Amino acid sequence: MDSLNDKINRLAEILGKNPLPPTDPETVDFQSIRREYEQQANLEVQKLQQNSKQQRIEQLHGRSDLNPGWTFANLQQDSQDVIEAVNIAQSFIAAHADPNWRNNSSHMMIFYGDYGRGKSHIAGAIAHELIAQFETTVLYRQLSTLLEMRFFSYDYSSTDNIAQQFRDIQKELLSVDLLILDEVCVNETMLKKNAQSWLGNLLRQRLVDHKNCIMITNHNLSELENALGNYCFESIKEYDTYKVKFSGPSRRKSITPAIPEEQRAPSYRPNQI
């Protein structure tokens, strides 16, 4: 008749586990063996859960269209405006640990300032952290790209399926937990009325569904209000809004070399005598 140890070893062989070392049948402690297998099973379950979470996070990163280099580790915190922006960003991220904060309110962060000040970088860093910590769904898009896609979606003779593509992106714009809109009204003093209505409706629907937004612009706040129009800007006012101004130096490399004043060629001035 097989001993308990033999039965356990056969079971271990079926499961692909290592067999137990030979022991005296009289000294076999069934409870100890059971605890050992339970611990091993729990470790394997935890490993599977970690692998599954990592795969989900990688998929979220892939769908977000974020620059992988936009992280806090890569950020140059060399001016007071960036330091303050990072503090606000960290508070915004930490607040997501509160389910009531996440599920019962809508939040809008407006990053405004000149080119190259780190606005998009910090917005991307926020998104990367939220994906990693809370598996937040994120979508990064330039507003001008969306408006162009929307415009071309009305070309019913098109054969590139642009209308369906826009309908698909519209669903994502409404459903993602965090929407980052970059280059808002870039080179625009005022959006066209139909674009104002579309963006205003998008923001209002996200507000109702308790979805968060980050809006990035080179305009100051008064210019942004004029560019978006009353209907759209009133939608923004309904959010819990955080306004973050970037006024430090540009982090982008200069392409044209600086020329001393005395070496510069005289530029044309009209009506000179």
UniProtKB/TrEMBL annotation:
ATP-binding found in the keyword field: yes
Pfam family, one: IstB_IS21
UniProt keyword annotations, A-Z: ATP-binding, Nucleotide-binding
GO terms, molecular function: ATP binding
Superkingdom classification of source: Bacteria
Annotated segments matching region Disordered: 253-273
Domain IstB-like ATP-binding: start-end pairs: 86-230
Name this polypeptide is given: ATP-binding protein
